[in-house]
Amino acid sequence: GDSVTQKQGQVTLSEDDFLFINCTYSTTTYPTLLWYVQYLGQGPQLLLKVTTANNKGISRGFEATYDKGTTSFHLQKASVQESDSAVYFCALVDLNTGYQNFYFGKGTSLTVIP
Amino acid sequence: GPKVLQIPSHQIIDMGQMVTLNCDPVSNHLYFYWYKQILGQQMEFLVNFYNGKVMEKSKLFKDQFSVERPDGSYFTLKIQPTALEDSAVYFCASSLALGGRRAETLYFGSGTRLTVL
């Protein structure tokens, strides 16, 4: 079945550091790939999504490329700020099962030290 | 952007009691979901609901759980009776109806923190 894997549970960076969060997926179809961000005490909110292989999603300085060859959708940001501290979830949605199925990774907790 | 409201934000109850978690989804959305998140862990899918019916549920959606949305009112998750392991944050989410690119985004509420004593 479909699944999403995030291996990094926690990442700690200093302001202006480069961010890379790993995400790989497994599916037999052509899903839409998404990143959600969850700030402390809030529900997850959509950060970016990409519907087509080999395309890139960009939002608020974050970017992720849908790489069908490596089945990856890593999240990157050139220069993080303290306000980026949050939990980041990679997700996959498969519309081909007849109803919607969203699959979330375990999440990566990012702490940015000023 | 679109807002999903969850009421209450916190609920504390004794084991064995019944609890109802309320969700006011985005007004034109037709697909509704409940997710469970234990502190510091992954969000886990419980159930999705469309056109008055449960479309899919996970193993976590025990027999003690039920969902409904009577006549456009709140989308509710009822647990009866509750157990200690039901303590978690429960997130409601909604999306536009099935089909097409509009349906690919889930909008989440801020969650209800349920503590079962």
Molecular structure report:
The complex is a heterodimer of chains A (114) and B (117). Chain A has 114 residues and is mostly beta strands. Chain A contains no helices and twelve strands. Helices cover 0% and strands 50% of the residues of chain A. In chain A, strands 2, 5, 6, 10, 11 and 12 form a six-stranded mixed beta sheet that branches. The mean pLDDT of chain A is 89. Chain A is globular, with a radius of gyration of 14 Å. With 117 residues, chain B is mainly beta. Chain B contains no helices and eleven strands. In chain B, strands 2, 4, 5, 6, 9, 10 and 11 form a seven-stranded mixed beta sheet that branches. Chain B has a four-stranded antiparallel beta sheet with strand order 1-3-8-7, with no helix packed on it. Chain B is globular, with a radius of gyration of 14 Å. The termini of chain B are far apart. In chain B, 35% of the residues are buried. The mean pLDDT of chain B is 90. Chains A and B meet through β5, β6 and β11 of A and β5, β9 and β10 of B.
Order of helices and strands of chain A: EEEEEEEEEEEE
- Helix fraction of chain B? under 10%
Radius of gyration of chain B: 14 Å
The poorly predicted ranges of chain B are none
The structural class of chain B is: mainly beta
Identify the biggest protein-protein contact and residues per side: A-B, 23 and 27 residues
DSSP summary, beta strand count of chain A = 12
Helix tally of chain B equals: 0
Helix % of chain A is under 10%
**Could you tell me the radius of gyration of chain A in angstroms?**
14 Å
- Gap between N and C termini of chain B: 36 Å
Major β-sheet profile of chain A: 6 strands, mixed
Strand composition percent of chain B: over 45%
Sum up the overall morphology of chain A in one term: globular
Which secondary structure elements does this structure contain, and how are they paired or packed?
The complex is a heterodimer of chains A (114) and B (117).
Chain A: E1 3-5, E2 10-14, E3 19-21, E4 24-26, E5 32-38, E6 45-50, E7 56-59, E8 62-65, E9 75-77, E10 86-94, E11 101-104, E12 108-113
Parallel strand pairs in A: 2-12
Antiparallel strand pairs in A: 1-4, 3-9, 5-6, 5-10, 7-8, 8-9, 10-11, 10-12
Chain B: E1 5-7, E2 10-13, E3 19-24, E4 31-37, E5 43-50, E6 53-57, E7 65-68, E8 75-79, E9 88-95, E10 107-108, E11 112-116
Parallel strand pairs in B: 2-11
Antiparallel strand pairs in B: 1-3, 3-8, 4-5, 4-9, 5-6, 7-8, 9-10, 9-11
